[in-house]
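**User:** Once you have settled down, spend some time on the protein underneath, comparing sequence with C-alpha cells, and judge whether sequence predicts the C-alpha cells.
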Amino acid sequence: QVQLVESGGGLVQAGGSLRLSCAASGRTFSSYAMGWFRQAPGKEREFVAAISLSGIVTNYADSVKGRFTVSRDNRKNTVYLQMNSLKPEDTAVYYCAASSGVPNLTARKYDYWGQGTQVTVSS
C-alpha cells in the first residue's frame, strides 16, 4: 500500500504560481512512477503530468507544457508540481497518483491515489 497526501492548493490570480506537493508513505516511493491529474466540475479527470521512477523522464499534457513542471525527491518521498502562469481554466481538484509501471497518461494505469487538493484561479 502507498498513501498519498497532496498539499499546496489554494486561490491564486491568473498569471500567478502555486507549487503542489504530494507526500508518500508506505512502500518504497522510488519504485513508483508518479502522475498528476486534475478534475474540474462537470468534467472528466484528465492527465496533467507524469514522472518516471528516477525523475529523468517526464510527460505533460499539451495544455500545461511550458507552464507546469513535475519533479520528485525520492529522499523525501515527495513529488511536486510547479504551476506557473496559471489560467482560470486550470481551476480543478488536483490529484497525485502512483503507478508500479512506467509514467502513463491514463488514469486507470495508476494504482494509488491521493484525496486531491483544490486549485482555484481567478480572472
Q: What stands out?
A: The longest strand covers residues 18-26. The radius of gyration is 13 Å. The mean pLDDT is 95. The CA atoms of residues 23 and 78 lie 5 Å apart.
